[in-house]
Write a structure and sequence with these properties.
Blueprint lengths: L1 H27 L7 E2 L5 E2 L4 E3 L2 H15 L21 E6 L12 H9 L14 E2 L5 E4 L3 E4 L5 H12 L8 E7 L4 E6 L5 E4 L7 H7 L7 E10 L2 E5 L1 H6 L14 E6 L4 E6 L5 E4 L7 H7 L8 E11 L4 E6 L6 H7 L7 E6 L1 H24 L3
Parallel strand pairs: 3-17, 9-13, 14-18
Antiparallel strand pairs: 1-2, 4-5, 4-8, 6-7, 9-10, 11-12, 11-13, 14-15, 16-17, 16-18
Length: 380
């Protein structure tokens, strides 16, 4: 009697199980789905999925090369000009055999300090002995009066002063040097050991020179993302690409007022999630990381739950969101994964296999409605 009464319930349970299986299988084979909403809450069509092929990789490399070919011709100077005297500089002037012309501007202690070669390290805020170039670019010297020296080199300023003093002194022998460089500066910030102001002196201030004066790059520095701001212009410098293109970074000349910022590698991360062995955020290697390297550093696709057919790369661009898909089962997929360059903030996602989705959904379903239905049928 009990068997006859339970027979319809067993059929109901089997039908319920079959219907649930159909729904689960339909969800398992759907793949990765995207749905966006605009500001009004209405659904937008999902972005199209672009299959990773040799043609797509070639097109992406062409776009990257075009974006990387920034015009740096204004920064590259093969033969830098000599230092030009500027406002605020302190000049050391000595007229030999005429110590009275020092006029207190150049003391014996300052001359000794200048001979020791330590003047460049003296703080710009400390009043230095010597002849200071005023806000109009002039110095005041005995017999010569107000002498405009702004924009002149040491040799040109010495020749001008010699010409002025020749009216009063026969064949004057003059030594003129910049004692303290205070008119021109650049600012170094970011991933360097000693960020801060760097004074431009008689040694040409190239990018390499500025970085070395700042103590060099830290291990966390991203050599592919060095930003240089000059007035309203902004340049992005990739040291690795410059070397590959045959451009010497030592020829990139800095100008007064330039701001150089070395970005951190932590600002250029790629996020790997989904069915990989160890999902995590990866740091790019000086701006470079391929899809194959990203999967390798996270342990690869999970052999128990990962679907090699559904490897996605989600990239947010200023225009739209792009979704790339790689089918790792195809011949040559490993080579394509090695050639596919990731970009900062990319999200690599490996979808679960249909069987893994089935097991997970089933484990969520059985402790709920189906388990309760089975329990009701077993009641006496």
């Amino acid at each position: 009697m009990g068997i006859v009464m339970n027979f319809p319930i067993e059929i109901l349970r089997l039908r319920f199980f079959a219907a649930a299986s159909a729904l689960l299988l339909a969800g398992c084979t759907a793949g990765l789905q995207f749905q966006a909403e605009d500001s009004k809450g209405s659904a937008e069509p999902p972005p199209p999925t672009e299959m990773i092929t040799e043609q797509l990789i070639a097109a992406e490399k062409a776009v990257s090369l075009q974006q990387g070919d920034e015009d740096l011709s204004r920064l590259v100077v093969a033969n830098p000009p000599p230092y030009a005297i500027g406002r605020g500089d302190v000049l050391s002037i000595v007229v030999w055999d005429h110590p009275e012309l020092a006029g207190g501007g150049m003391t014996a202690a300052a001359a000794a300090l200048d001979a020791a070669g330590t003047n460049s390290n003296v703080s710009a805020n400390v009043a230095q002995p010597g002849f200071v170039v005023d806000h109009q670019g002039r110095i005041q010297f005995p017999f010569a009066g107000l002498l405009p020296v702004e924009g002149l080199t040491e040799e040109a300023a010495r020749a001008l002063l010699t010409q002025k003093l020749a009216r009063y002194i026969a064949s004057p022998n003059i030594t003129l040097r910049v004692q303290s460089y205070r008119s021109k500066r650049v600012y170094i910030d970011g991933e360097v050991k000693q960020p801060g102001l760097q004074a431009i002196n008689d040694i040409p201030m190239t990018l390499v020179e500025a970085l070395n004066r700042a103590g060099g790059l830290l291990p966390t520095a991203d050599q592919s993302r060095i930003a240089l701001e000059r007035a309203e212009a902004r340049y992005r410098i990739n040291l690795r690409d410059l070397v590959q293109k045959g451009i010497n970074p030592g020829n990139i000349m800095l100008a007064p007022g330039d701001v150089v910022r070395v970005h951190s590698r932590d600002e250029s991360k790629v996020f790997v999630s989904g069915e990989v062995v160890t999902p995590r955020a990866l740091t790019m290697h000086n701006g470079r990381l391929t899809l194959n390297e990203a999967l390798g550093e996270t342990g690869g696709i999970s052999p128990l739950s990962g679907d090699a057919r559904q490897i996605y790369v989600v990239r947010k661009t200023p225009e739209r969101t792009r979704v790339f898909q790689l089918d790792a089962r195809l011949a040559g997929s490993i080579a394509m994964a090695e050639s596919f360059e990731l970009r900062p903030k990319d999200v690599v996602y490996v979808a679960a296999s249909p069987l893994a989705n089935w097991n997970r959904n089933l484990s969520l379903l059985f402790p709920g409605a189906l388990t309760s239905a089975v329990g009701v049928t077993n009641r006496p």
